[in-house]
Structure formats: structure tokens, C-alpha cells
Amino acid sequence: MRLVFRLLGWLLFFAGLVVFAGDLWSYLTLDRLTLMPFGEVWATLDRDSLAVAQPAIERHVSVWLWQSVIFPMLLLPAAPILTVLGIVLILLSRRRTPPPGRKRMFGS
């Protein structure tokens, strides 16, 4: 499971860098800074899942969660969200070392 989180973390991290590069490219070509919102990235990748997510979350989890957490997050710039989420997953999936003074039981 740790490997899956680590892989997903690196994919999200690099996706954040790619989106940032696209934002930077649009700035260099258009001479104005336009940051791609997270919702637009999601819609570009899979519009149907975005359309299904809202009623599913509102109906089965909470209307508050969609309106107060997820929807505002969809309006934020995608590059920092993807990059930070990737870093969090990478850090959560790293191997933990035993506290000082304790030996590992198996392996090195």
C-alpha cells in the first residue's frame, strides 16, 4: 500500500510541475498570468467524473463537504494543489525508522 501512495504522490507532484509549466508558458506567450484552476484540470482529464462527483458527494456524504471544501478547492490554482498533495502522499508513504535505541527485528 505504501508503494501505491508513493507512486501516486510522485505522479501528483509531477502533474503539478507540468501544470505549472503550462501556466508559465501561457504567461510567456500571452504576457499575462493565468493560472489554471484545479476544476479545469479535472474537467480536461475526465469531465464525466467531475459531473458525477458533485451529486454523489452531496447525496451520499454531505452537502457541506461539497459547498465548503471541494468546490472552493476546484477554483484554486491547480499547480500548488497537485504539488502539495503529491508531497504529502510522498511523506506519508516513506519508510519509518525505529526510535533511537531500538533494533529492528527483521532485516536491516
Mean of all residue-level pLDDT scores: 88
Task: Report strand %.
Answer: under 5%
User: How far is the N terminus from the C terminus?
Assistant: 20 Å
Q: Give me the strand/helix succession.
A: HHHHH
Structural class: mainly alpha
Helix content: over 70%
Q: Choose one word for the global shape.
A: flat
Low-confidence stretches: none
Count of DSSP-assigned helices = 5
The major sheet is characterized as: none
What is the total number of structural domains?
2
- The gyration radius over C-alpha positions equals 19 Å
Compute the number of strand runs: 0
What's the layout of helices and strands?
Layout: H1 2-30, H2 38-45, H3 47-60, H4 63-75, H5 78-92
Helix pairs in contact: 1-5, 2-3, 2-5, 3-4
What are the defining features of this structure?
single chain, 108 residues, mainly alpha, 2 domains, 5 helices, flat
Description of the structure:
It is built from five helices and no strands. The chain is mostly helical and 108 residues long. The chain has helices at residues 2-30, 38-45, 47-60, 63-75, 78-92. It starts with a helix and ends in a 16-residue tail after the last helix. Helix content is 73%, strand content 0%. It folds into two domains: 1-31 and 79-94; 37-76, no CATH class. The longest helix is centred in the N-terminal third of the chain and has 29 residues, at 2-30.
